Amino acid sequence: MSTRITNGMLVRSVLADLTTVDQRLSLLQRKLSSTKEITKPSDDPYGAGRAMALRGELEATSQYKRNVREALGWASVTDTALSKIGDLAQRARELIVRGANDQAQTSRDAIAEEIDQLADAMKQEASTTYDGRYVLGGTRTDIKPYAMGSDLYAGDSGAIVRQLGPGVALGVGVRGDEVLGGSATATGDLLRVMRDAAAHLRAGDGASLGTVDLQDMQGQIDHLLGIRARVGATANRLETAGTRLAELEESTMQLLSETEDADIASTIVAYSTQKSVYQAALRSGADLVQMSLLDFLR
Length: 298
What we know:
Structural class: mainly alpha
Shape: rod-shaped
Strand order of the largest sheet: 1-2
Helix content: 55-70%
Number of strands: 4
CATH class of the domain at 53-257: Mainly Alpha
Radius of gyration: 38 Å
């Protein structure tokens, strides 16, 4: 039994074929205009999921990079403050040596006054801020570590920590009492050493100045240098982490591009080919659709 092919069947078949070709052409047009292989999840569900995961990784990496930049700034400001405190400590050491050798009490009183002024200047340097936060106050970044008129440390023993990666955290802060003292958990005692030296100067105790005070001051200076070395090592690690994160970001962006970006050259070729196919389909379809009984009765 033969099947009769009617003119309506031909028209529907032609229109269906044209629709299919037009959809392919539209898809290629979207790829060219967006430069993306995936413009919606249905284009490639697996690729769309992978692209979303890669974008999440990029966002996390960007946050880690911001953490590194902020931590480097914090470490730089901290080192500058410690450097200035170190310069003041060296000056105090020189004054202690001078006071031990100077027999005139008026001179010793003047030296004691200068040492007290140096101690106050150290507390002022300990109030250095970064982005409006005190860098030597532990986690109490909104409170001055030392108030004028008091040698007590007002910060806490908390550590400033920054996340550099998944499960990777680094302490970037230095507490004021690690250098100047003034708390029960202090590891430094610079203020106390300077106050003792000033008291010995006023009392004319040259023996204590040339032995105990001088040795204690040198010990505090060495301790401060050790802390600065720690800050320098932290900065080096942060710079290494920053380089690693930049490399990771670049490789992730490359993977993302390979996943969702269109190959423009091949897409242009495919578009040109599909456009020619569409135009040919239109011409042949027009001929088929126009054919009717009247065409054969001419």
